[in-house]
Design goal:
The chain contains 7 helices and 5 strands. It is α+β, with helices and mostly antiparallel strands. The termini are far apart.
């Protein structure tokens, strides 16, 4: 597959993983995943062998060791690399994942259904991935409510208050919440902290006129 198809696949897979595991350094992770997704082809160009050592799972060892230093960065690099190998299993030549121990090319499709690099089918896969990236980006960044809506949740705006502030809207971590209540019912309020972690707070029996 072309480089742009591999990059699109890596971005999509990383967004899904970032959403499921709530990974930090989101933008940096996207850049690393996209860059590493073309790493196998770059290595093979240097060695002069198409689908050679660059497509080997042996790279899994040094890449996975990055988790010792930073989990988010290690996950991004590993996703970018593995996504390339996975996508190549759908191509005509397949992927020699066990090279140089075993030079067998692993494939996922029957020969007639495999994708040839640079063809219309390759471009169609790229377009399909782009369509999937849009909703994945909304979920990964927490903006999916803009599309699907959420009547049970209210949007909260947080501001710092002093420890002596006394207000029914003040919670224990000194954050004042100002939000709109449509009904006098329990509301789920999502607070976004500086470190990008999400904390869900249940606000019970709040008086709309309070």
């Amino acid at each position: 597959m072309r480089s742009y198809t591999h990059i699109a696949a890596a971005i999509l897979f990383y967004m899904i993983l970032a959403f499921l595991l709530e990974l930090g350094h989101f933008l940096l992770g996207l850049i690393l995943a996209a860059w590493i997704s073309v790493f196998p082809d770059l290595v093979d160009r240097l060695t002069g062998k198409h689908r050679g050592i660059g497509h080997s799972l042996l790279w899994f060892i040094p890449f996975s060791s990055l988790f010792i230093f930073n989990v988010d960065i290690g996950a991004a690099i590993l996703v970018g690399f593995l996504s390339h190998l996975f996508m190549d299993t759908f191509t005509v030549h397949g992927c020699p994942a066990l090279y140089p121990i075993l030079e067998t090319n692993f494939v996922c499709l029957a020969k007639k259904r495999r994708i040839k690099t640079g063809t219309k089918m390759d471009k169609a896969v790229f377009v399909f991935l782009i369509f999937l990236i849009v909703p994945a980006a909304l979920f990964a960044t927490g903006n999916h409510a803009l599309i699907i809506g959420d009547e049970e949740n209210s949007t909260a705006f947080a501001t710092r208050t002093s420890p002596t502030t006394s207000s029914p809207y003040t919670i224990k971590n000194d954050v004042t919440l100002n939000f709109r209540l449509d009904e006098a019912t329990n509301k789920n309020v999502t607070v976004e902290r500086i470190n990008e972690n999400m904390t869900t707070i249940l606000v019970k029996d709040m008086d709309p006129g309070g």
